[in-house]
Inverse folding.
RNA sequence: GGGGCCGUAGCUCAGUGGUAGAGCAUCUGCCUUUUAAGCAGAGGGUCGUUGGUUCGAUCCCAACCGGCCUCACCA
């Protein structure tokens, strides 16, 4: 089938799919064209926005003429006069349209619907019932809507509680048609405005300290920097399979080798793993590397940074997340991983063999597999039993060396590395370490990973010879950090699903 | 991948082994300060898809598609 035929059949199915509501609106659109209107105009001069008008209105001030534009979201026609609300990027405002005032445009208005985008010029006034509104002098249709939006009605009772009638609540529709969700559910917009503030305030915090924002490859010949399965893609001209990055780490450290003393990147990583309410296949990661610093210094920085982000985004250091109140005021608890396991389970895992660890895991109904090394078993015990209990921001420090192949050996505790994870609301929010900069040690750690891979661990890291070559030239002592921006946003906006902080969460394709 | 729940009008939902109903939205009429506007009337559905059982399926059964929750896996 050629493209032309495709287009024809697409058009046929489009026409068949039309329901009564859409057909009616297309008929109205034709009617408006006959009246000489262009239903899809090119521009409109807007000089005010809804919330500014509402906030600055004074009953005793001189009359003020404004020009606003937005989408019709409610409509009350009363014969020769009508009220409607339009929604613009900041909020809603009511319009009052009277036939005697706008003349023929009132007949045009009769052909308009919920969802149409209009521009109005008029006088700000207060109605009998007290709502600040715009008394229209002119009305322009800017874009006709031919597909009916869900109609969500609200009522604010005397206590100021907002009641929502007929909410648009089907999660599948909300995620697949986020544009509708955003039009109809204003709190969704708020979440994403906050998300932008999270990213903005992180960036400002790091820029102020002189760290350089950089970009590194998404398409990588060798993936690395984390334990995860990658997506594979194919480059046609090179006839070579590339991996979508699972982390920025190894490239950012190459830049530290190159002499930058502080670099960071905020970008998408991709992991080819299960999806649930805290995992999306593509997600946003902040990574930061600072020379001549260690993980202790990094803990101080993370406390300051997230505290400042919380202040910027929520206006305070205390944040309500579900049933919990989380307080980001520094300092936060710092406890070693093994101590935290001992505190919660009573088990001392220090110096235990792989078999002993497996037995302890089994005792606490934590599943382990044969391919797991000692490090992975400890991690399984930790994530299964301890992690969910950590609600207040807590630094878990000093991880087993086997599960941290890129982290530097602990300066005083054999078998451990200088690594911390920030836990909050039962999830990992950040991961950081004193970076391993000994090229020979790094090589042997990669070799250990290769052995795990041979045992069937699909997430074990692969040897990156170019990265080793970089380390061989010499990398200064460095502290490195990764923060999941989506999860940080979840905490700061009180959303329990990552899908609620990503505009277009991954879904199976329709049909 | 396992288990549970779900898919009925544009939206939110009810319902029945004899091809369906409500509220809002839509349409017609009335209405020049309404606000979940109101009053009177009307139209609108391949009941997720495909099979099976049955005289007959939207309902019972199976598979599939999609979603949510949960466990597993996983940052």
């Amino acid at each position: 089938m050629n493209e032309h035929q495709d287009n024809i059949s697409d058009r046929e199915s489009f026409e068949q799919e039309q329901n009564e509501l859409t057909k009616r609106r297309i008929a109205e659109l034709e009617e408006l064209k006959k009246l000489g209107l262009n239903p899809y105009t090119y521009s409109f001069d807007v000089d005010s926005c809804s919330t500014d008008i509402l906030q600055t209105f004074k009953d005793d001030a001189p009359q003020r003429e404004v020009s606003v534009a937005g989408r019709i979201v409610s409509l009350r026609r009363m014969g020769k006069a009508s009220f409607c609300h339009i929604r613009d990027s900041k909020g809603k405002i009511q319009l009052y349209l009277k036939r005697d005032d706008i003349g023929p445009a009132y007949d045009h208005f009769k052909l308009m619907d919920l969802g149409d985008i209009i521009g109005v010029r008029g006088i700000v006034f207060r109605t009998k019932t007290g709502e600040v509104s715009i008394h229209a002098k002119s009305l322009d249709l800017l874009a006709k809507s031919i597909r009916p939006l869900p109609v969500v009605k609200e009522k604010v009772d005397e206590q100021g509680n907002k009641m929502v009638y007929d909410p648009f609540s089907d999660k599948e529709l909300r995620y697949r048609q986020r544009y509708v969700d955003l039009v109809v559910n204003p709190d969704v917009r708020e979440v994403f405005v906050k998300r932008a503030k999270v990213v903005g305030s992180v960036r400002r915090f790091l820029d102020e300290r002189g760290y350089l924002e950089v970009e590194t490859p998404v398409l990588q010949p060798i993936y690395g920097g984390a334990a995860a399965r990658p997506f594979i893609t194919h480059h046609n001209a090179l006839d070579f399979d590339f991996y979508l990055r699972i982390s920025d780490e190894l490239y950012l450290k190459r830049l530290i080798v190159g002499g930058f003393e502080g670099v960071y990147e905020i970008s998408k990583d991709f992991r080819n793993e299960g999806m649930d309410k805290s995992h999306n296949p593509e997600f946003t990661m902040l990574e930061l590397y600072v020379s001549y610093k260690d993980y202790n210094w990094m803990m101080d920085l993370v406390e300051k940074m997230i505290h400042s982000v919380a202040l910027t985004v929520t206006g305070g250091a205390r944040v309500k997340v579900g049933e919990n109140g989380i307080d980001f005021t520094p300092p936060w608890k710092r406890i070693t991983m093994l101590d935290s396991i001992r505190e919660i389970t009573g088990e001392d895992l220090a110096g235990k063999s792989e078999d002993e660890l497996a037995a302890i895991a089994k005792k606490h109904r934590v599943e382990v597999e044969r391919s797991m090394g000692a490090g992975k078993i400890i991690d399984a015990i930790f994530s299964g039993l301890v992690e969910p209990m950590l609600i207040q921001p807590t630094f878990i420090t000093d991880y087993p060396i086997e599960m941290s192949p890129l982290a530097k050996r602990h300066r005083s505790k054999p078998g451990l590395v200088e690594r911390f994870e920030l836990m909050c609301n039962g999830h990992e929010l950040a991961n950081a370490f004193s970076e391993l900069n000994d090229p020979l040690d790094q090589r042997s750690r990669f070799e250990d990973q290769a052995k795990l891979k041979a045992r069937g661990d699909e997430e074990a890291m692969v040897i990156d010879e170019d990265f080793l070559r970089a380390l061989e030239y010499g990398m200064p002592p460095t502290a490195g950090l990764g923060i999941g921006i989506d999860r940080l946003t979840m905490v700061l906006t009180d959303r329990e699903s990552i899908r609620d902080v990503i505009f277009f969460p991954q879904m199976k394709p329709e049909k």
About this structure: The first strand of chain A starts at residue 65 and ends at 78. Residues 318 and 327 of chain A are 4 Å apart (CA to CA). Confidence is low (pLDDT under 50) at residues 1-9 of chain A. The longest helix of chain A spans residues 186-208.
